[in-house]
Amino acid sequence: MAKASSKKLTSLEVCAGAGGQAIGLERAGFEHAALVEIEEQFCNTLRLNRPKWNVIQADLNKFKGTQYKGVDLVAGGVPCPPFSKAGKQLGELDERDLFPAMLKLVKETQPKAVLIENVRGLLDPKFKDYRDVITKKLERMGYVVSWKLFHAAHFGVPQLRPRTLMVALQKPYAEHFEWPIGNTEKIVTVGDALYELMASAGWKKVDAWRKKASKVGPTLVGGSKKHGGADLGPTRAKKAWLALGVDGKGLVEFAPQADFDGDPRLTVQMAAIIQGFPKEWKFSGKKTAAYRQVGNAFPPPVAEAVGKAIRKAIRKAIEQGDRKPTAPKKPKATSSRVLVA
Fold this sequence. Notes:
341 residues, alpha/beta, disordered N terminus
């Protein structure tokens, strides 16, 4: 085995959000060279949980990635509204489409692998031409590209949450890549995932509630700056949550008390568990702002599974061809890393 295989691979993450993807890639064995996120509250959450991470508040359209040339992986969950069925699905015509900025970053950094996460709608037939454009641009840069639909519930996340993932690897590494399969039989239910938290204040009816909540939940919807608040989504989603014994009309600060009667609401921490975050992960800001961070996150267990598959492919190529992982040079300190304006 090549000596280089003991070293950690590096990642540059953009649209990092509240850290769902970052947690997963950290677990998968990647060391974060930098995490780029435009929203201050999200950046605060990242720094709150991982003070040593290099968190950069920046507009991806203005971010220069040249100083990270040679990073092993560039990853990001670019904004989903351009492709979401909850919106107008304007695709590349939507001003929030950051695929061009992502491709520019890939060209600047030339990573071994690229990981992009988005909503299920991106795989709709109406976006085939746009996917083809993205694929061809990456192929011209020397990458082998594949797209796949993932269901978070197959990776231990107690909600449906279908997501589109794109993985691109340079040719020497692509031949070793295999998509993770997940487990369609061992499903974690809402009741099992939240039992400990729901019982934490001594709620007497928690066992009966657990039996009712014996399925995975619908996709959490965190809302945006302009739309959505601290509730569990549109009317159809609320009905689905109610069938599981959860009142989806809002969030609460505390778990049900001993004599609570009725259908409980979730706390931000409970919602985060439904999204696959570790129990100890904290979110900066008040309830609505914190829940928006949760609802828009990439479930860590899915990011971990795909990250491990990418890491395995790179490692195999390194071992067989003795290609050493290249770490980017550390950027020089600057007076400010806020590039939003």
